[in-house]
Amino acid sequence: MTIGEFVFVKDPSYSIKHIPYKDEWNLVIENVKLEHAGKYECQISTKEDLTRHVVLNVKNIFISGPQYVEKGHPIRLTCNVNGTLRPPDDIDWFQKGVKLKNSPLDGVYIRKYVRKDSMTLTSQLKISESDVTDTGTYICRSSKNKITTHYLSVLN
């Protein structure tokens, strides 16, 4: 895929980051997709060839967001779900076993959008003003029954 700083695959998501003062070379993969999963090999040519293997596993559903939020500050969580042939149809959010719904009067906003180039459905959950009762496990479930969780604590 690469030799030195030269990347010879046509996939623009691959690049090399060289940190000279650390003598460090890193393979960077932007906008990781399911097809990026697999076994990668790093070789260093010296008198004795050095080889390292790294296995990249790509989750097809994940939540990103903070683990801690100060009371009164907004909560922002994002759930991404990948499909293989097409993006999932929908994403639902749950907290304490209750399905969350878009409710501007209650300060709960759920926004969804599709990226067809990566077959990804993204849902952003925003709670305008957090309270200690918002502490707990948040669940993201796709229409394809893929589920992931994220624990968040609201600090008083």
Automatic annotation (TrEMBL):
Domain Ig-like per the UniProt entry, residue ranges: 69-153
Naturally occurring in which organism (per UniProt): Tegillarca granosa
Phylogenetic lineage: Eukaryota, Metazoa, Spiralia, Lophotrochozoa, Mollusca
Name recorded for this polypeptide: Ig-like domain-containing protein
InterPro entries hit by this protein: Ig-like_dom (IPR007110), Ig-like_dom_sf (IPR036179), Ig-like_fold (IPR013783), Ig_sub (IPR003599), Immunoglobulin_dom (IPR013151), Zig-8 (IPR037448)
One Pfam family this sequence matches: ig
Highest taxon above the source species: Eukaryota
